[in-house]
Amino acid sequence: MAKKKGKLRAEFRKHHESRRRDGDLTRQFHHGAQPLEDVARGERVSGKGKLTRKRTVFGDEVTGDEHGFAVHLDVDLAQALRGRVLAVRGLHSTVVTDEGRQYRCATRRLLKTLSTDARHVVIAGDVVLFRPEGAEEGIILRVEPRHGTLSRTSRQRQHLIASNVDQVLVVGSAAQPDLKPNLLDRFLLSAERTGIRPIVCINKVDLIDAASLQPLVGNYAQLGYATLLVSATTGQGIVRLRRLLRGQQTAVVGQSGVGKSSLLNAVDPNLKLRVGDVSEESQKGTHTTTTATLWPLASGGFVVDTPGIRQMELWDVVPEEMAGFFREFRPFVSRCRFPDCTHVHEDDCAVKDAVADDLIDGRRYESYCRLREGDGLE
Ligand code: GDP
Ligand code: ZN
Q1: Contacts with 38 (C-beta within 8 Å, 6 or more apart), sequence order
Q2: Is the distance from the beta carbon of residue 236 to the nearest atom of ligand 1 less than 6 Å?
Q3: Is 306 in the pocket of ligand 1 (CB under 6 A)?
Q4: What is the average pLDDT score of the chain?
Q5: Centroid of ligand 2 to alpha carbon of 51 (angstroms)
Q6: Where do runs of H (alpha helix) occur along 168-326?
Q7: Which residues have a Cβ under 8 Å from the Cβ of 246 and sit 6 or more positions away?
Q8: Cα(254)–Cα(229) distance, rounded to whole angstroms?
Q9: CB 126 within 8 A of CB 69
């Protein structure tokens, strides 16, 4: 294959808009005359604000960069295999092929040097092309364009944690610990911000009278969220949960102790996740590296697990953006008297009017106010 080495200066300007009714954050690209179609392959990211990047690269093809794109250079793909990154540990990634074979892979040096932050070259969830070296090892040549990226911003920098996440399973428990709808809303808000589809899952329904959950479940269902009542102990709802996870890459979030590990074990007993593990508590508040792990499900698909994702401290939301992520507020937010209305204390607030008219659920509005005031993180 002839390798055409061209010098290519690419400017990517991306910005996110939340104008779509379903909350997807779309990203648009403006670029010069270079054919960068590959870049524009409908990616969604969780980043915020406007970013402009300029980068000079050498190569025959550009498919992106470390912020959700791969850079593809002179790659001879004839013998390459395709796989998904289950975990990244140090310089090595565990990659699994569609057939279920696992390879320990290093990353091609050229890929690394093109990245401004080596940690972001390859992340859990990435779909990669790699060259096998023997039966169990390989070298990652290329990272395919990402979607559904989970990230955390710290010290002005965006840290990517996992990519290609299709949905977020927001788990709460009906009791022990008590149901905290406010916390569910907090998780939903974070999911809305990333544009990744959330599913509401309330576990431990064996401990309560399920009828008592109907108002809450009815409200979420009305907002268009898939909502499940389940019990890892009795098996109630597990078949439906398994079906929802099948073939998808799902991030599982929720307070410690609500039964996330138990539920995943119920969905796939091969996982054998530790139940009642308190180690995630000790991770709270620390800002050490958050490494994600993907667990393949026997029924197809993957679940994404990291302590950081579980706590969701990482999914920072700017207060001014919050109302837009409460999907039922959206028809009203532009009708307030003040363009910068917080919908908490202002007069002539269309959101508050909607609550008074029962067009917005009062409990959700209270949740919003608490989150807006910086409450609801615990
Ligand atoms: P995680 O921290 O969210 O992963 O929660 P675990 O899966 O470790 O479970 C926490 C505790 O809740 C354990 O003692 C489990 O046995 C218990 N538990 C999990 N699911 C259920 C359930 O459906 N019903 C009841 N009664 N207890 C459960
Ligand atoms: Zn308002």
Answers
A1: 61, 62, 63, 64, 72, 145
A2: no
A3: no
A4: 77
A5: 29
A6: 181-194, 214-222, 238-245, 260-267, 279-283, 307-311, 322-325
A7: 297, 299, 300, 301
A8: 15
A9: no
Q: Is 258 in the pocket of ligand 1 (CB under 6 A)?
A: yes
Kindly state the percentage of the chain with pLDDT values over 70: 69
pTM value is: 0.77
Lowest-confidence segment of 32-36, 123-127, 322-326 by average pLDDT: 32-36
Distance 176 CA to ligand 2 centre (A): 36
Pocket test for ligand 1, best of 179, 236, 262 (most atoms within 8 A of CB): 262
**Bigger pLDDT: 373 or 249?**
249
Least confident segment among 63-67, 75-79, 134-138? 63-67
CA 227 – ligand 1 centroid, Å: 19
**Position 37 pLDDT exceeds 70:** no
Could you count the other beta carbons within 10 Å of the beta carbon of residue 133? 13
Task: Enter the tokens of residue 206.
Answer: 């064996």
33: nearest Cα among 11, 56, 50: 11
Q: How far is the CA of 221 from the centre of ligand 1 (A)?
A: 24
The Cα-based distances of 123 to 109, 221, 246, 288, 364 in angstroms read 16, 33, 22, 16, 35
Bridge pairing between strands 127-133 and 137-143: antiparallel
Q: Looking at residue 267, what is its pLDDT?
A: 97
